[in-house]
């Protein structure tokens, strides 16, 4: 395995090369001779968290962690809900990494400030949705973890406001899909790379570099049960697409839906509804990281016609935003109807 780590950063990728996520991170780090390594350690914390969460996801029914907090597992032990377990894993792995100043999770009302004493040395903020689409677990469906890394804004007096940066400022973003295999998709702003967990070795193996999303594919992904409460433009788009023979695919977990679109093309939407007038998805934990991945792969991510998700100025850490994300041509077809 050491031969992989010795690979020069700019060497052309050979098709038979075996590169783990860990080796990939070290390769990327060599591009930045001034790097302290803090950023690489954060990515490695996310990788170990992903393996731990994947293992819990596989055992969810056996451990009886699907319902509400306070369930008992098959051994009669009290268990936490799986999203609480996933949240704890991420907080504990990231909490041990020197470079992390602030952690913000969809599960916690307030961001967690790590070691405020010498916070100046800690350069990064990590935001995550620990287990997106967790209701899918009850039926053995796919779920995911989404993460976003920002540089700490030293000018901000309050930790909370240090986090309120537009998605365009993200230094890295990614997701982990716990599906029929466990897939780790990462961008550090140099394209999108994909890794699959090899259960035999316990390592994420690189399976694709520079992933490009197809420009078009006649497929949309939206909760069509809400159709009558969407703004009129979305309803018109759906009629337009159906007249042209589009397919509909909806997993009910954004990570699974966006992953399919990243590989096969199409458009994922979560429009405003009467119940959720600003849409359901969270800007900082879901929309921004997915938008960075999709744009880095050559796709588009809008909150409204002409408005990039990555340019939305956040005012609240938990704010919601409408999402239209996917193949560039398919996103434009939706926008043209709004
Ligand atoms: P969650 O973070 O509470 O799991 O909610 C987010 C999920 C997304 O993964 C998915 O796209 C969406 O909610 C599905 O919502 P709906 O059931 O309204 O279609
Ligand atoms: Mg979520």
TrEMBL record:
Residues that coordinate or bind substrate: 132-135, 223, 250, 280
Presence of keyword Metal-binding: yes
Subcellular location: Cytoplasm
The Fructose-1-6-bisphosphatase class 1 C-terminal domain, residue ranges: 213-336
Amino acids binding Mg(2+) 1: 106, 129, 131
GO cellular component: cytoplasm
EC top class named in words: hydrolase
The reaction(s) this protein catalyses: beta-D-fructose 1,6-bisphosphate + H2O = beta-D-fructose 6-phosphate + phosphate
Cofactor detail note: Binds 2 magnesium ions per subunit.
Keyword Transmembrane: no
Molecular functions (GO terms): fructose 1,6-bisphosphate 1-phosphatase activity; magnesium ion binding
Limits of the Fructose-1-6-bisphosphatase class I N-terminal domain: 20-207
Residues that, per the record, bind Mg(2+) 2: 129, 132, 286
CC cofactor: Mg(2+)
Primary localisation category: cytoplasm
Protein keywords: Carbohydrate metabolism, Cytoplasm, Hydrolase, Magnesium, Metal-binding
InterPro entries xref list: FBPase_C_dom, FBPase_class-1, FBPase_N, FBPtase
Pathway assignment: Carbohydrate biosynthesis
Domain of life, per lineage: Bacteria
Family statement drawn from the similarity comment of this UniProt entry: Belongs to the FBPase class 1 family.
Subunit structure: Homotetramer.
Protein name: Fructose-1,6-bisphosphatase class 1
Organism: Steroidobacter agaridevorans
